[in-house]
């Protein structure tokens, strides 16, 4: 029998037949043929369309996917570390619910503020478990991982780690937007940093006449005077004889109307030997402030004591000593008497809706109130 015939007999031999009569070469060839067939069956099994595998089965060894199909590691991490609400990588703090779902600080605060407006318990958008500042915690590992992921510079479109992107855009990027050093005398030029030396060497503003420069500087002085007027007014109030301040805490309540509305009120407090109360409302008592992207708070000061004569006062609200909300001080004036013991609602001078959401997300709003009694 030829060697080819021996090889064929070795492959098709019955399972019960003895292999003692086979040569070493025949046995090796049989093993090689079985391995080739098994590999072909595995490849065909991968390509064959059949029923989906049972999820309870133990995981099988996966076939390695080429790099072109799997994508970059950064792209895969992006989908893992992104916020479950806005689907973007967090830029600052990262919070997680009790089941580990991630939320950026902005979306987390927005969810808490929405639940306050709707009088509902805030829940995770993924698993619907309860979330709050006490139940959720920050995930420092995710924050550090996100800071090391690369991102594009908005000016030069080069890749940099997120932790160093801010310094690059402010100090190092040659394409960052900059202004002419003669801006203070009216030059409106803005352009990439690498073009700045060429522009400044040809800028016409240094050669302007004194009369032209005085007109430009006059407009700048007007803006400066408006900024200084507030601080001068505050310094003037600090010279008053009767000055009082206290920490106030706004607590959320609901109206008893058919359509309930959220409002805030402080307990009674005493300043300048008088009893006062502060009230605040959201979006000036808008019917559904939770449907609005723009959110504001306004407040009024109420005198609860009876007075024998008019009490003329100036007052302002500032942020509390332990809050991080940004409030620009605004001075208000009112003459209190028994017939006019309430001020009009005035806007709380917060910068934007993000700061308003910070206040709404808190259990209570803590601020500091100053009252200055005007001397007659």
TrEMBL record:
Domain RING-type: 83-128
Zinc finger (TRAF-type): 149-187
Pfam families xrefs: Sina_RING
Broad class of the protein's primary localization: cytoplasm
Alphabetical UniProt keywords: Cytoplasm, Metal-binding, Zinc, Zinc-finger
Gene Ontology molecular function, alphabetical: zinc ion binding
Skewed-composition ranges (Low complexity): 10-21
UniProt-annotated location(s): Cytoplasm, Perinuclear region
GO cellular component, one term: nucleus
Region (Disordered), start-end ranges: 1-21, 45-68
PROSITE patterns xref list: ZF_RING_2 (PS50089), ZF_TRAF (PS50145)
Keyword Zinc-finger recorded: yes
Oligomeric and partner information: Interacts with LGALS3.
Similarity annotation: Belongs to the ZFTRAF1 family.
Record's protein name: Zinc finger TRAF-type-containing protein 1
Organism listed in the record: Cottoperca gobio (Frogmouth)
């Amino acid at each position: 029998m030829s060697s080819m015939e021996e090889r064929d007999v070795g492959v098709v031999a019955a399972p019960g037949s003895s292999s003692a009569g086979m040569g070493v070469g025949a046995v090796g060839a049989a093993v090689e043929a079985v391995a080739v067939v098994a590999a072909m069956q595995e490849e065909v099994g991968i390509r064959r369309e059949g029923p989906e595998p049972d999820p309870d089965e133990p995981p099988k060894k996966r076939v390695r996917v080429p790099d072109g199909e799997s994508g970059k590691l950064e792209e895969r991490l992006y989908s893992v570390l992104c916020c479950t609400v806005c689907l973007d990588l967090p830029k600052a703090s990262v919070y997680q619910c009790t089941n580990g779902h991630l939320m950026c600080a902005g979306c987390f605060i927005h969810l808490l503020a929405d639940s306050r407006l709707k009088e509902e318990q805030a829940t995770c958008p993924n698993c619907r478990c309860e979330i709050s500042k006490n139940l959720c915690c920050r995930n420092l590992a995710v924050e550090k991982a996100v800071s090391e992921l690369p991102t594009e510079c908005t000016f030069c479109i080069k890749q940099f780690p997120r932790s160093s992107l801010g310094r690059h855009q402010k100090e190092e990027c040659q394409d960052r937007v900059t202004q002419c050093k003669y801006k203070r005398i009216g030059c409106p030029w803005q352009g990439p940093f690498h073009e700045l030396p060429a522009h400044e060497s040809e800028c016409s503003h240094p050669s302007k006449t004194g009369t032209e420069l005085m007109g430009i500087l006059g407009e700048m002085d007007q803006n400066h005077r408006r900024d200084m007027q507030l601080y001068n007014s505050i310094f003037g109030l600090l010279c008053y004889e009767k000055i009082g301040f206290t920490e106030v805490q706004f607590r959320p309540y609901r109206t008893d109307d058919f359509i309930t509305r959220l409002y805030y009120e402080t307990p009674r407090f005493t300043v300048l030997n008088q009893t006062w109360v502060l009230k605040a409302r959201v979006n000036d008592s808008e019917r559904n402030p939770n449907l609005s992207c723009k959110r504001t708070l306004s407040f009024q000061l109420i005198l609860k004591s009876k007075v024998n004569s008019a009490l003329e006062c100036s007052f302002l609200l500032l942020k509390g000593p332990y809050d991080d909300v940004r409030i620009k001080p605004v001075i208000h004036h009112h003459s209190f008497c028994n017939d006019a013991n309430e001020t009009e609602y005035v806007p709380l001078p917060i910068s934007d809706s993000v700061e308003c959401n910070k206040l709404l997300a808190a259990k209570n709003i803590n601020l500091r109130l100053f009252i200055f009694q005007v001397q007659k």
